[in-house]
Amino acid sequence: MLSSFFYLIFGIIVIGVIITLLSAWAVKLSNPYRFPYFRYSFDVSGKRNVDLINLIDTFLLDERNRSLLDDYARQLDTWEKQTKAEIESIHFKWLRQKRREQYESILDEDHAYTFSTCRNRTRYNQANYIRTPYTVTFVDQQIQVSLEWLLDRCCQLEKTNFEATLKDWNCKQQRRLMTPKLRKKIAERDNYTCQNCGKYMPDGVGLHIDHIIPVIKGDKTVESNLQVLCSKCNGRKGGR
Ligand SMILES: [Zn+2]
Fold first, then answer.
1. CA–centroid distance, residue 73 to ligand 1 (Å)
2. Residue limits of the HNH nuclease domain (predicted)?
3. What average pLDDT score do residues 210-231 get?
4. What is the whole-number distance in angstroms between the Cα of residue 184 and the centre of ligand 1?
């Protein structure tokens, strides 16, 4: 009678020890830290040919958004300090060491700023012959950049006095290079003839100087990228 009581107590103690060890092991293994990424999403529903970098420029042009980035940088700094202090205050040496490693492993400052584009799509539920629309949002494109990258971008935008995105600014600069002298040179080179349909325009009426690859796609106002087109062919090209 006494021995079975003894075995019962012994069994309970063994099970208790095993549960304690298992939970300690689980606490040690699971990483309690999450890096607080900066997230910003642009709604591009219904838009085509979305340029995410250009959207980030647009974001940076607004002073309020730039102060959002400053706020986040401060928050991140506070988070880092607090977490480090928390770790150093852990009593058990083995756990402190483990937590340090876990904390180091999630740090990701080079990708701290996450920008994405999202689209809304309408989907339908059909039940008992009634169609109910509902909206689904999904991420279209995503890019992760560092604070250095954003600051560099801001420096470049400062050149435009925060008035235009770098893409628009470059387009403007390239269009400005199209001087009357250059127009005349290209017209003479192409013999006042449309390079698409062969129409001859010696008086220059309806003669267009066309960027073969448009400046909006990043190409330049240089002779090799220019050609003569008639107004009809140029209009058709613009429509595409
Ligand atoms: Zn033509």
1. 55
2. 181-235
3. 89
4. 18
For residue 113, give its domain range.
33-158
> Rounded to the nearest 5 degrees, what angle is found at the Cα of 203, between the Cα atoms of 200 and 209?
70
Where do the H-state alpha helices sit in 49-146?
A: 52-61, 63-88, 93-106
CA of residue 189 to ligand 1 center, whole Å: 16
Instruction: State the distance from the centre of ligand 1 to the C-alpha of 193, rounded, in angstroms.
Output: 8
| Inter-residue contact 215 to 171 (CB < 8 Å) | yes
Beta bridge partners of 226: 211
Ligand 1 centroid to Cα of residue 124, in Å, is 48
Ligand 1 centroid distance, CA of 117 (Å): 39
pLDDT at 29: 78
CB 21 within 8 A of CB 93: no
Mapped onto helix, strand or coil, the DSSP state of residue 140 is strand
CB 147 within 8 A of CB 53: no
pLDDT for residue 113: 95
| CATH code of the domain in which 192 resides | 3.40.1800.10
Q: How far is the CA of 168 from the centre of ligand 1 (A)?
A: 28
Q: Are residues 196 and 123 in the same domain?
A: no
pLDDT tens-digit map of 67-120:
999 999 999 999 999 999 999 999 989 889 999 999 999 999 999 999 999 999
Residues 81 and 119 in one domain: yes
pLDDT at 222 over 70: yes
Based on the fold, state whether residues 153 and 186 are members of the same structural domain: no
